[in-house]
Amino acid sequence: MDRHLIIAGQGRAGSTLFYSMLRHTLRGVHLPETEMSAAALLALPGDFCTKRPNDILDIDQIGAAAKGRKRIDLIVTLRDPRDILTSRHDRVPDDYFCSADACYTMFGVAAPKRNGPGLIEVHQAIIDVAQGPWFPQGVYFLKYEDLLADPDAVQRDLAAGFGLRFDAAFSATRPPVQSWEMQRAMGGDRPLEHSRKGRWRGPEHRDRILDQFTRFPQLLDILVALEYEPDAGWFDAFRAQPPMTGPLAEGAAPAAAWRGSGRQEKGES
Predict the structure, then answer these.
(1) Considering only 92-96, 104-108, 223-227, which range has the smallest mean pLDDT?
(2) Which domains does the chain possess?
(3) d(CA 35, CA 31)
(4) What is the three-class DSSP state of 177?
């Protein structure tokens, strides 16, 4: 039976970078150059891989369309929610791209609109899908931090868990020139940047973190559920710190990454 590999989950979580790695190393699978929904290609014969973060909200429809026609597998993209909430995009220069309750969407050259699902809604959709009927084989949870820290370990996981074949190591592929659409999704063509991890700690983002976690305290539970923090104590300490003044010292230590990505059997949390 043909198969379809779906990449979906949180936006601003490295899905475009990851998809680019796959496009230049994965063998025997068709990967469209542009972002598109899995549903658009299910009727075509052959093995495909697509990436569209918001497909996580459409898994029931995708699963129903694929039933009896293709096997579907899912890679869920994740990232420290604090970094998602402080992510910016060059097409939305005056606002943060993703919030707890809404996210900007972009279609073609039209102006971005703040009408997409927020981080909390997407997180709940991820839980529902992981506990649902479409992936009895389990799903693969890919943390952006792990992709940066050890891309080859991620690649080995995918080869072992999904039986995928690769022509080259993720780490050996230089960041390729992206299509215009992929560059737009990434906010411009750029190499791997480890400094982007833990940037929420920057003093310029203090008000943003205080606002989001005060108005949406469920974000604290999400951080713990994803094991980015053991409890909510970090926020108490963050609020107690006086605002920083003056230039931020270079080389500040980024937030620690949790090495916890990988296959998770259905029902685990």
Answers:
(1) 104-108
(2) 3-193+258-264 (3.40.50.300)
(3) 9
(4) coil
